[in-house]
Amino acid sequence: MSPILADVLQVSALVAALALVHRPLGDYMARVYAGKKHSRVERWIYRAVGADPDAGMRWPAYLRAVLAFSLAGVLFLYLLQRLQDRLPLSLGFAAISPDQAFNTAASFVANTNWQSYSGESAMGQLAQTGGLAVQNFVSAAVGMAVAVALIRGFARARTGELGNFWADLVRGTLRILLPMAAVAAVLLIACGAIQNFSGTQSVTTVTGQTQHLTGGAVASQEAIKDLGTNGGGYYNANSAHPFENPSGISNLLEIFLLLVIPFAMPRTFGRMVGSVRQGYAVVAAMAGIWLAGVVAVTWLEAAHPGTAAQLAGGAMEGKEQRFGEGASSLFAVSTTMTSTGSVNSFHDSFSGLSGGVLLFGMMIGEIAPGGVGSGLYGMLVMAVVAVFIAGLMVGRTPEYLGKKIGPREMKLAACYILVTPALVLTGTALAMGTGNGESSMTNTGPHGFSEVLYAYTSASNNNGSAFAGFAANTGFHNTALGLCMLLGRFLPMVFVLALAGSLAGQRPVPASAGTLRTDKPLFTGVLVACIAIVAGLTFFPSLALGPLAEGLAA
Amino acid sequence: MNTSARSTARLLFSALRALLVLTVVTGVIYPLVITGIAQGAFSDRANGSKVEHEGRDVGSKLIGQSWNLKGTDTPDPRWFQPRPSNSAYDPLATGPSNLGASDATLVKTVKEAKQQVASFNDVPVSEVPKDAVTGSGSAIDPHISPAYARIQVDRVAKENGLSEPQVENLVRDHEEGRDLGFLGNEKVNVLELNVALSRLTDN
Prior knowledge:
The complex is a heterodimer.
Chain A: H1 3-34, H2 40-49, H3 59-82, H4 98-109, H5 119-122, H6 125-155, H7 165-191, E1 200-204, E2 210-214, H8 218-227, H9 248-272, H10 276-303, H11 307-312, H12 324-337, H13 352-363, H14 374-394, E3 399-400, E4 403-404, H15 407-433, H16 436-439, H17 445-460, H18 475-504, H19 521-553
Antiparallel strand pairs in A: 1-2, 3-4
Helix pairs in contact in A: 1-9, 3-4, 3-6, 3-18, 4-18, 6-7, 6-14, 6-18, 7-8, 7-9, 8-9, 9-10, 9-12, 10-12, 10-13, 10-19, 12-13, 13-17, 13-19, 14-15, 14-19, 15-17, 15-18, 17-18, 17-19
Chain B: H1 2-41, H2 43-46, E1 50-53, E2 56-60, H3 104-121, E3 143-144, H4 146-150, H5 153-160, H6 164-174, E4 175-176, E5 187-189, H7 190-202
Antiparallel strand pairs in B: 1-2, 3-5, 4-5
């Protein structure tokens, strides 16, 4: 079979699988969050937490609960790493340094999973399985909870209440993430991913050399790492490591896991606001941008521009033989556009322009389809902006789903879309201006600048992938990137929840002949154009200095 | 003021309890149950798909190995050689070169690797496939392309005193297509191929 045909079939199979589960999973999630009943385990958990799951929270209370839970997560993870050498199952590794422990704690609680450490040579089994993997579940559940709170803001009228954070957190974890991760983990093990507690084993090879193989609860972590759009690999090589991602089948399964919840959330949204067509308009915008990225990167990697790639006869540097260029490109686009950041090949060695596409996928704010939860709320904020701009064009008061988009709503939406660009550009400028950027580069010239830009873009947008030549484990970058991750995660949540509260308090306006239809292809087009313009205007100069300069020179 | 401090403390305490309960569920029960299923139903795979030779484990079929002459950086001509590795196939230091597609250092590395592979296998430079001159992402890639295996046949046959058709057949038996016909890439597992080769030379 020709490589092109195989690539086309691979993408088609993925799209078909995602389309097949879109409705049942989206509907199921809507039922989970709208349900009134509590299971016995959940009741027990609420008692242990000391929370009333039926008490409605207004947006400030919801936000306080989100922040308190996340703060507890950061402190717990920090201590787990700092005390690693004194706790069991450490595999003999030392305690993590204060700046790296802060960076890693911030990273996993912010659903970023930026890794300035190397898994197989720094983190013991307790830190990985009992600390990092737990945040893979709960940070994802927090993102979904905030998205559901925003949906309720649209769906409810004349109430300030957005639901109960503890109920949303526990249900998201127990009823959605846990069962799906368990099935995925078993499938990954069937493909060859490992799952044991054997520690490091030594074997003598045929030629008489010694090889050390690190064991661990890899498959169980791999499943939630992808499903929760987290991305932190058990090993340094992440999903390029054969123990994490052993075959072509496991590879497609992992890409499916990255995309399945983010692409199903618009259905949940449509269900909960009472019009599934509203969800289709949103998912169409997500899918269009994602597919354009897949086509661009697959084509660029097949054409392999760049002196070294041309000389080698293909863009296989940093890619695994069992995946090849096609499956690597598909993974790369899916992981950068979902805020996951796990990698099955190394983006630093992709062609300059491919790197630019991957960067742009993050710069649009991780919304195509974005992280679990965060992708949907990011896209809905962009929809609010699109409605506003379209409203200005026709001279009508903008409204979305029967809610007026007034000055307060627009201020909150504008604040939301300013947070990550401010972090990315200030962070990059600060790193470059102080010389900390240059001293961490592996590559030189425009590509070296791309490494720094990629690092700050990835951290601020909570992606977590890297142009991994960038030496991130320094006091400056651990601290600066840690702050970018925390602010890039929680400041937008503040604005989203405030927006949700303001929408929920409104009286709905009935649709009239002058209302812009937001469930039509025209609106999808306006939405995509708004996203491209906002991100393009913000980031074009920085892209021109890095990937564009490199790509056009090649 | 006092009441707000107290309610903040109460909230933080609730958050901590929620975290601990969810840690028990997702950080203890979940991995243990999955490990139980894995060890019960797929113990071979869950423990790393070990390859056995002459009664002992000689590695994992998923983890590439170095086939250099012992204690040197020189490839041993008797064995099929894997892709270049950024870490000399040490699984405790996985990760790639991270050099850009136009990088001068990478250009030099590729150029040298092309010459080395061509002269080592006595084939023209134009026949050296891309995977033979590029480092993988993991640095422990267990596979090479069928093309890279084929250009090594003559050398391996000569060095081991085997006939070329014998070794050719061996390579053909170890060529794997794409999974399900369209997923991933075509490949040959180097460890399995060399173990089979070793069986052939022992007889």
